[in-house]
């Protein structure tokens, strides 16, 4: 898909690159760092792309990435983007008009007054914050998920971790990268809403809840004033600093990259997914599928009840959103595809990754609507929505299940959507109205398959655009390009509809009645089978874990 997007560039691409009428988006996802360069003359089109694969590490029972990996990965992806631009257009960019940084939301990066990292980066994937999340949810009267930054901070307070008195600043991964590129400790409101609850009327942290937290920890940690250590909150369209000389050297150690590009507010992957799918207005929503999978639904009104399955976050413009976030997405599906790809190679019929996925996905279309009674749990990590602190990937079948390749792959695809569907049914119970649901992520590259099954799982039409597989990096590039447009008072939704998606084509799949009924039956069996998943966690401890 990278090549397909880049070859759609306008004829004046070389002029845009030379004149720096471009916006660079970078997104640090769970398994890949992606960079995307667009023309400000037409933000819907891509000029060049670059990427670098990476993977989290499980160290001392925590999921993490080293900061050294962050910068080596960004530099590798940036070099690949420069090479791609030069190959396609004969111009090697020496600077950009605007830049945006996005990354996986939530998690915990804590620094001291000297800017030194106090403890290794704790990612969204960690589920060790149960005590803190429960206490804060009760205190605030809103759901505080395990992965939120405030849950990580408070768990460190509860556990009397030695680094807490030294904390000067906490942020997310996107906020960290932006800080190092510009010197500014800021965060886009969407990413900030995964750190601490946001008041949508002020588009800032909820002042009353900040005060409640300070009171909560006043006796144990009187020096801890939450407002002083959180990033400043900005909304889409606000300039958030310029690329410094030091920041340019971090992106391009050769010294060829010029400083001075304007940066937009750093955003989380949820916010960039909303932009990439034109889902920032009420009654619109999107599903983003990667290492995790989540749905974002822009609300018309507040929810009536608190639900542990739902986060309350915001769009990049600060409007309220209900989020169904599942820790486990398409990674287990990809592992099985890798196994089948290796089998093909061993049989002397080598296939590339896209061919493997295409063959398996097409086979799934011939399976039974309920996957023949097969269940697949994609739980590589814990899954808070279903109450599991750890995960064990499983395939479960009964002797009377119809065990075919088609049903096996269909069960794996259903498994990607299973926990998400449980959360979306909670939203249905709240009477949340939804006119359009968009989807993006690599699993939608095989046209019409995962999209069809998602439509059946949600019983709702699902639309996919041509940018579906590279949505995040492209989305933050669009937010970077929006900074100049916002100066003239243009609204983000208007900008997306008129300037970015005006001529866009979306492939829409309506739910198939047999798929809807089959998935509903599968989901009931999946819900019952969670007892098997829980038993597997208890019976099969991870290597190196301590009883």
What does this protein look like?
The chain has 547 residues and is α/β, with parallel strands linked by helices. The protein has 18 helices and 24 strands. The strands form 7 sheets. Strands 1, 2, 3, 6, 13, 14 and 15 form a 7-stranded mixed β-sheet that branches. Helix 4 packs across helix 5, helix 13 crosses helix 14 and helix 15 packs across helix 18. The termini are far apart.
Helix and strand topology:
Blueprint: H1 2-6, H2 13-18, E1 22-28, E2 32-39, E3 42-53, E4 57-59, E5 62-64, H3 67-89, E6 98-103, E7 109-111, H4 130-140, H5 149-158, E8 169-171, H6 173-182, E9 186-188, H7 189-192, E10 198-199, E11 204-205, H8 207-216, H9 226-229, E12 232-234, E13 239-242, H10 245-251, E14 262-264, E15 267-268, H11 269-276, E16 284-289, E17 293-298, E18 311-314, E19 320-326, H12 331-346, H13 353-364, E20 375-377, E21 394-396, H14 405-429, E22 436-440, H15 450-458, E23 462-465, H16 471-486, H17 492-500, E24 506-509, H18 513-539
Parallel strand pairs: 1-6, 6-14, 6-15, 9-12, 16-22, 22-23
Antiparallel strand pairs: 1-2, 2-3, 4-5, 7-8, 10-11, 13-14, 16-17, 17-19, 18-19, 20-21, 23-24
Helix pairs in contact: 4-5, 11-16, 12-13, 13-14, 14-15, 14-18, 15-18
